[in-house]
Write a structure and sequence with these properties.
By secondary structure, the protein is an alpha/beta fold. The chain folds into 3 domains: 74-103; 105-142, no CATH class; 148-311, Rossmann fold (3-Layer(aba) Sandwich). It is built from 13 helices and 7 strands. The chain has a 5-stranded parallel beta sheet with strand order 4-5-6-3-7, sandwiched between helices. The chain has a two-stranded antiparallel sheet with strand order 1-2. The longest helix is centred in the first third of the chain and has 34 residues, at 71-104. The radius of gyration is 50 Å and the shape is rod-shaped.
Length: 319
C-alpha cells in the first residue's frame, strides 16, 4: 500500500489537500517574489547615447542618460520650474496683501484724485499741498477785502455788481487782460463816477489771489499827509504798508495834495523798483501827473511797457 493511501485510510489529509488549506500557496509565493525583485538594469544598448536635444552636448562616458536631455539641462529646467512656481506664489501673496490694503484705505478727498490715503476725508500729499495753498490764497483775499471800504467789497470781474458800476462795456475785458499783463502798474484813468475804484478793487482781487500775498487799499490823500502827522523820526504805518504790500490799490491819486514830506512819490518809485503790483486810480492826464509828481512818476504810471493804462469814459454812476 502506498503512503498516500495509508494516510487517506487513517484520516490524514493528503499533501495536495494541505497545499489547498495553506493561506499562501507555493505558486503565490513564487509570484510575489518575482514582483518584489528589482528590475535588472537596462542593457547597454538601450541607454540613450544621442546628444542633448537642448544644448547638443554628447553624453559623457559614464553618464547614465535615459531621456533626451543631459543632466545639466534637466537640472536647469527643474530650477526654472521651481523659480517660476516661487514667483507665482509671491505674486499671489502680493495680490492678497494689496486686497487687504485696499480694504483698509480710502480714496483721496481731493477733487478727481484717485490716490489712496489712510482714512476717509484725508488727502494725499499733492492734494493736501494744493488745499493748503488754496486756503492761504483765500485767507489773503479775505484779508484784503476786509481792508477795502465797504461799498467796494463786492466788486469782482465776474460779478454783476461791477458791471452795474462800470458803464464802459470794454473796460472789464481790458481789466481782465491787465491782470495777466507783465507790468508792475495798472493805471485806471477816468472822470469822477466812471467806476475807477470799483474796477481797481476787482483787478486787485485777482492779483492778490494769484500772488497769494497781502493786499492793501490806501487812499493817496492819506498817504500824502501820513508823514506830517507822524511823530518826528518815525515812519507812519500807512507808508510802511504801502511800501511792503504785495498788491496795493493807490486810490484817487489826483486828490493827493502837494504837501511837504509827501510819501506818494516815494511809494511809486519804491514799488516800481521792486516790481510790486500796484493799481492806481486818477483823473489826471500824463502831463498833469508830471506837473504835480514829477516826470519820473508820470513815466512810471503811464509809459507803455511799464504800466497798463485803462481809460474809462465819463458816465454817471458809482465811483
Amino acid at each position: 500500500m502506498s503512503a498516500v493511501a495509508m494516510m487517506t485510510e487513517r484520516g490524514h489529509p493528503t499533501p495536495e489537500e494541505l497545499d489547498e488549506e495553506l493561506p499562501f500557496g507555493p505558486a503565490e509565493d513564487e509570484g510575489e517574489e518575482r514582483e518584489l525583485a528589482p528590475s535588472p538594469p537596462p542593457a547597454r544598448e538601450a541607454v540613450n547615447r544621442a546628444p542633448c536635444v537642448k544644448c547638443g552636448t554628447p553624453p559623457r562616458p559614464r553618464e547614465y542618460r535615459i531621456g533626451d536631455k543631459c543632466d545639466r539641462c534637466s537640472s536647469a529646467e527643474e530650477q526654472e520650474k521651481r523659480d517660476r512656481e516661487f514667483a507665482e506664489h509671491v505674486a499671489r501673496l502680493d495680490a492678497r496683501a494689496e486686497e487687504e490694503r485696499l480694504a483698509r484705505v480710502h480714496p483721496c478727498a481731493g477733487d478727481r484724485c484717485v490716490e489712496l490715503v489712510g482714512g476717509p476725508g484725508q488727502r494725499c500729499n499733492v492734494c493736501a499741498e494744493k488745499h493748503r495753498e488754496e486756503r492761504e490764497r483765500l485767507g489773503h483775499l479775505h484779508g484784503f477785502v476786509s481792508r477795502v471800504p465797504a461799498m467796494y467789497r463786492d466788486n469782482d470781474l465776474d460779478g454783476a455788481e461791477l458791471a452795474a458800476r462800470v458803464k464802459d462795456p470794454t473796460a472789464i475785458e481790458r481789466a481782465r487782460a491787465a491782470c495777466n499783463a507783465d507790468t508792475w502798474c495798472v493805471t485806471i484813468v477816468g472822470a469822477a463816477g466812471a467806476g475807477k475804484t470799483s474796477l481797481a478793487v476787482a483787478v486787485a482781487r485777482r492779483k492778490v489771489y494769484a500772488r497769494s500775498g497781502r493786499g492793501q487799499f490806501v487812499p493817496a490823500r492819506d498817504l500824502a499827509f501820513a508823514r506830517s502827522r507822524a511823530p518826528l523820526g518815525a515812519e507812519p504805518v500807512t507808508v510802511e504798508v504801502a511800501l511792503e504790500a504785495s498788491v496795493l490799490v493807490l486810490d484817487d491819486l489826483d486828490l493827493a495834495p502837494e504837501v511837504h514830506g509827501s510819501a506818494v512819490v516815494d511809494v511809486i518809485h519804491a514799488r516800481h523798483r521792486e516790481n510790486l503790483p500796484t493799481i492806481v486810480t486818477t483823473t489826471l492826464t500824463p502831463a498833469e501827473t508830471a506837473q504835480r509828481f514829477g516826470d519820473g512818476s508820470a513815466r512810471r504810471l503811464f509809459e507803455r511797457g511799464m504800466a497798463t493804462v485803462i481809460e474809462l469814459r465819463s458816465s454817471k454812476g458809482a465811483k
